[in-house]
């Protein structure tokens, strides 16, 4: 749009890539675009175009940092600005978020980053792209990108950004494959109740085992150094498994899948792991090993029909949506019902692993990891 009409043109948008998810988009604050002959005088004139987007509401979560921002940013840049001659303008960003991902963001553009809320001056650009392109959850479709970039190219970007900062001490011992166990503790849900025994079983198989529970103070170079130098990563479905993006091709990734998250496990991690040439394995929990059995009983729909319950949850939450204006009205009761159903599987459920069965997975992972060790010499 341009200032060619005497009548101001106003458009409200939510510059966030999860457009099909009505509940999520309703939580994103609107940005108002105005085209008018009378506009504020430019304080700063840029020669490069702007790419503006919102960091949104979910980016205190490592998974959503990548799925909602960083991967769509990679897709958008390679679709529209392959020469990297543009300026990042970020809405609703927090200082800590920009600091955390500063090194990676610098890899997208040759220009300094601009944050919308922290700058009171009027900046003018020759043009602007508002919002990011997404191909779906944890998805990069090379057929939809002019230069055919894929997940391996995104993986290379991560390596170029964080691999250079690896200390030499991060290299694993050659004799024993290293297994990184993405642990969960406290009242977060999906905790492995017999984690100590599982760790011992992995050591008995032959692994050097490191329990990895990243905190807010864990830097990305530290995480990259550990994960990329390991041979196997094991963990329960959750945001921390997003670190699988740091694994090398040929590494092994074992996702432990609790009751009720089977579809999410494949969509969020399984598909992309295969595209990164990682040996992917799923270990699905039986009903008898879920803490939900004691709470609900084996005949409850929570355990007998989790997919039907998920379908009911997805249908709840929004009563009126206007696609043109991207606005939404909540039915609060239905939205709370949706959240309650999701929390059953993601927050209320803890698990125990069948050590005999899971040890078979560990043995398979060990044999695959030994191949990688042998290649390392």
Automatic annotation (TrEMBL):
Predominantly, its location class is Golgi
InterPro entries cross-referenced by the UniProt entry: Glyco_transf_61_cat, Glycosyltransferase_61
* Annotated ranges, domain Glycosyltransferase 61 catalytic: 62-254
List locations, semicolon-separated: Golgi apparatus membrane
Stated membrane topology is: Single-pass type II membrane protein
What GO molecular-function term can you cite, just one? pentosyltransferase activity
**An example Gene Ontology CC term for this record:** Golgi membrane
Which key words are in the record? Answer: Glycoprotein, Glycosyltransferase, Transferase
Please give the superkingdom of this protein's source: Eukaryota
Pfam families per the UniProt record, alphabetical: Glyco_transf_61
Q: What is this protein called?
A: Glycosyltransferase 61 catalytic domain-containing protein
Write down the species: Escallonia rubra
